[in-house]
Amino acid sequence: MGTPLASTGEQAEEVVNRLEEAYPDSTISLRYADRLELLIAVILSAQCTDERVNSETEHLFEKYDGAKDYANVPQDELAEDLNSITYYNNKAKYIRSACESIVEDHDGEVPDTMAELTDLSGVGRKTANVVLQHGHDVVEGIVVDTHVQRLSRRLGLTEEEYPEPIEAELMEIVLEDYWQQFTHLCIDHGRATCTARNPDCSACVLADICPSEKGDGEVDLASGDPW
């Protein structure tokens, strides 16, 4: 069992420093050419791998050009174009509805505020944060996906269970300059080492400061279950 640093602020800073060294090129893995493509890719990425999304959007972005195309396509046709994506019927509805709003209420442009983005169909705070950060260079918060949720609990940075309260706690302890990068570092480490089912604690650069480390620790703090 690793021993966390004295405060969660110190713990967060050390986590960022070590992960930056381990993953110096960490960045978003979704592929897109503009803000609308980013928005659509993030909507599609819910409960789906970025690799699958990138494969699907390669032909999707060739077929559709702008919000009007998505707003006007028949629901069944768009759903068929997305049929290898999880929950593709619902996501097709979200995309069509969001694009209708973008055309009707925002002159065809993806909005640049949290309130306007989260008013769009299928867009929660996580999706809005990604679009703001990578589409508009606006960093208002920390994107809490499943990797950030899992790692922040395992590392003792929070005891909260759900994304929004986790984000609020992380914003208090992660330096603001690292809010965006913190997510990418957690995603890379979560994919490479700190996986959900069988983390490789023996190869982890954070093992000595991780209270969930399997060597001596009895509980996975991410789930509360025993190892």
From TrEMBL:
Enzyme class: lyase
Keyword list, A-Z: 4Fe-4S, DNA damage, DNA repair, DNA-binding, Endonuclease, Glycosidase, Hydrolase, Iron, Iron-sulfur, Lyase, Metal-binding, Nuclease
GO molecular function, one term: 4 iron, 4 sulfur cluster binding
Highest taxon in the source lineage: Archaea
Cofactor comment: Binds 1 [4Fe-4S] cluster.
Residue ranges constituting the HhH-GPD domain according to the UniProt record: 44-192
Zinc in keyword set: no
Family designation: Belongs to the Nth/MutY family.
Reaction catalysis annotation: 2'-deoxyribonucleotide-(2'-deoxyribose 5'-phosphate)-2'-deoxyribonucleotide-DNA = a 3'-end 2'-deoxyribonucleotide-(2,3-dehydro-2,3-deoxyribose 5'-phosphate)-DNA + a 5'-end 5'-phospho-2'-deoxyribonucleoside-DNA + H(+); Hydrolyzes mismatched double-stranded DNA and polynucleotides, releasing free thymine
Cofactor requirements of the protein: [4Fe-4S] cluster
Chain positions recorded as [4Fe-4S] cluster binding sites: C194, C201, C204, C210
PANTHER family assigned: A/G-SPECIFIC ADENINE GLYCOSYLASE/ENDONUCLEASE III, ENDONUCLEASE III
Function according to Swiss-Prot or TrEMBL: DNA repair enzyme that has both DNA N-glycosylase activity and AP-lyase activity. The DNA N-glycosylase activity releases various damaged pyrimidines from DNA by cleaving the N-glycosidic bond, leaving an AP (apurinic/apyrimidinic) site. The AP-lyase activity cleaves the phosphodiester bond 3' to the AP site by a beta-elimination, leaving a 3'-terminal unsaturated sugar and a product with a terminal 5'-phosphate.
Protein name: Endonuclease III
Lineage, highest ranks first: Archaea, Methanobacteriati, Methanobacteriota, Stenosarchaea group, Halobacteria
E.C. designation(s): 4.2.99.18
GO BP: any one term: base-excision repair, AP site formation
NCBIfam families in alphabetical order: nth
Organism: Natrarchaeobius halalkaliphilus
Gene, per the UniProt record: nth
